[in-house]
Write a structure and sequence with these properties.
Layout (H helix, E strand, L loop, with lengths): L1 H20 L5 E3 L2 E3 L13 H12 L10 H4 L3 H18 L37 E4 L2 E4 L7 E3 L2 E3 L2 E2 L2 E2 L4 E2 L9 E2 L2 E2 L3 E7 L4 E8 L4 E3 L12 E5 L2 E5 L11 E4 L3 E4 L11 E5 L2 E5 L7 E4 L4 E4 L11 E5 L2 E9 L2 E9 L4 E5 L10 E5 L2 E8 L4 E8 L4 E4 L11 E5 L2 E8 L5 E8 L4 E4 L11 E3 L2
Parallel strand pairs: 5-9
Antiparallel strand pairs: 1-2, 3-4, 5-6, 7-8, 10-11, 12-13, 12-35, 13-14, 15-16, 16-17, 17-18, 19-20, 20-21, 21-22, 23-24, 24-25, 25-26, 27-28, 28-29, 29-30, 31-32, 32-33, 33-34
Length: 457
């Protein structure tokens, strides 16, 4: 009874609200609240008579197949959720599937190795340049295409003393800063020119420690008294004379001769040269007292005062700098010893070998070795060693007295060639000094001559 009263009260409230608003309200039929019909139910909700007839037919128990049953007319919560879920699934199945994003194709064929591949990645392949190939996104030396040598992943030219090599092999650093000749660290002494008593010769020879090899006559013109020293780019030759002309040209031997352009020292002969910190230091010649440096590409004059002007001085490099001894100053023999530190000249000894010029010198075991030369009135045959602080005479037999011989160091020995004897005849003999004694080598080689230019590796 209470339930009937509650439903009836709810129906009365709904009817009252409907009258007040002019809208359809729920209808009580057989104690059940029915929702107003909708056009989709096949009932015209605007006709009260048809609604009443429908309600009466339902009340009397007659079934109108054109009207929805109570169970369909009043859906439960469960029915509604199920319907909604099914509808959503159907809608999802019916909706068109969007096209998948196209796959990104990396574009690296023409890209720089290590650059963006256009897909958020890095190109593991691509162009790198001559002698290189791309490996794991980095350009590295390619042994199969590098014509020089490989060092730290780079393809080097292979001609520098610090990176010498060919054929994509690993670069090597040449002992003593070079030179690197034809992709290999040079292990030869180079000799050029001189005077044979009749002609100013222009041939080039190399000494490998056991034999001489002729290298042809292409290069500087025939001359005597040229200065030569070795740098990382090769053996550098400057000046000299041919009896009528003093030269001011610069040449470099690196397996073949090449002439270098540019200004430098004035034309001169009988200057002296040695290598310091990779540069050639040249002093004097033809009575001059100036100091010059060759960097490997150009000459620079060093404005330092030092030894008096002279020619025919002898020089060799030591750890402390270039040591210079003696020379000739307008016909006067000199016996002073000087040191070029790289910045200034200092006289370091006034005693030692007797005054002389045209002596042969080279460096061995950190010391300067001096042989022969001409004194005030005679040709010398003595051997001296400068240890950086003082001179010591080595009282040992050796080559016959001579002037204008040339010397260089190779393989832990000093090699001495040629010169002029005390009868003014050219010499063509080869000797080696091992630090304690002289040994003559019976080998064929350059024709007899004096004052050829000579430099070791």
């Amino acid at each position: 009874m209470g339930r009937i009263a509650l439903v009836a009260g709810f129906a009365w409230i709904m009817a009252t609200v409907g009258c007040a608003t002019g809208q359809d309200t729920a209808t009580l039929t057989g104690g059940i609240v029915s929702l107003p019909a909708s056009p989709s139910d096949g009932v015209d909700a605007s006709s009260p008579m048809e609604a009443a007839t429908e309600a009466s037919a339902t009340k009397d128990g007659e079934t109108d197949t054109s009207a929805p049953q109570d169970d369909a007319a009043v859906p439960t919560m469960t029915d509604d959720a199920s319907s909604t879920s099914e509808d959503a699934g159907a809608a999802e199945a019916a909706a068109p599937t969007p096209d998948a994003a196209p796959a990104c194709t990396p574009a690296c064929a023409a890209a720089v190795c290590g650059g963006s591949d256009g897909c958020g990645g890095t190109c593991a392949t691509g162009s790198c340049g001559s002698g290189l190939h791309c490996s794991s996104g980095a350009c590295v030396c390619d042994p199969s295409s590098c014509t020089g040598c490989c060092s730290a992943g780079q393809c080097m030219g292979g001609t520098a003393a610090s990176a010498c090599g060919v054929g994509g092999n690993a670069c090597e650093s040449c002992p003593g800063s070079g030179p690197c000749v034809a992709g290999a660290c040079s292990s030869v002494v180079v000799l050029f020119g001189g005077y044979d008593g009749t002609n100013y010769v222009n041939d080039t020879w190399t000494w490998n420690g056991t034999s001489w090899t002729a290298q042809g006559t292409s290069g500087p013109s025939g001359r005597v008294g040229a200065a030569m020293a070795t740098t990382s780019v090769g053996a550098v030759l400057f000046g000299g004379a041919n009896g009528t002309t003093d030269f001011a040209d610069t040449w470099v031997w690196n397996g073949s001769w090449s002439m270098k352009s540019g200004s430098g020292p004035s034309a001169r002969t009988n200057a002296t040269a040695a290598t310091l910190a990779g540069d050639v230091v040249l002093f004097g010649g033809s009575g001059n007292a100036d100091t010059w440096s060759w960097s490997g590409s150009a000459w620079s004059q060093l404005g330092a005062t030092g030894p008096s002007g002279r020619a025919f001085a002898s020089a060799a490099p030591l750890a402390a700098g270039v040591v210079l001894f003696g020379g000739d100053a307008a016909g006067a023999s000199l016996g002073d010893t000087w040191l070029w530190s790289g910045a200034s000249w200092t006289e370091v000894a006034a005693t030692g070998p007797s005054a002389r010029y045209m002596a042969a010198t080279a460096t061995l075991n950190g010391k300067m070795v001096l042989f022969g030369g001409r004194g005030a009135s005679s040709w010398m045959s003595d051997t001296w060693v400068w240890d950086g602080a003082s001179w010591t005479e080595m009282n040992v037999p050796g080559p016959p007295a001579r002037i204008a011989a040339s010397a260089a160091t190779l393989g832990g020995k000093v090699v001495l060639f040629g010169g002029q004897d005390d009868n003014e005849n050219p010499l063509g003999d080869t000797w080696v000094w091992d630090g304690a004694s002289w040994t003559q080598l019976e080998v064929a080689g350059p024709s007899p001559r004096w004052f050829p230019a000579m430099a070791g590796p």
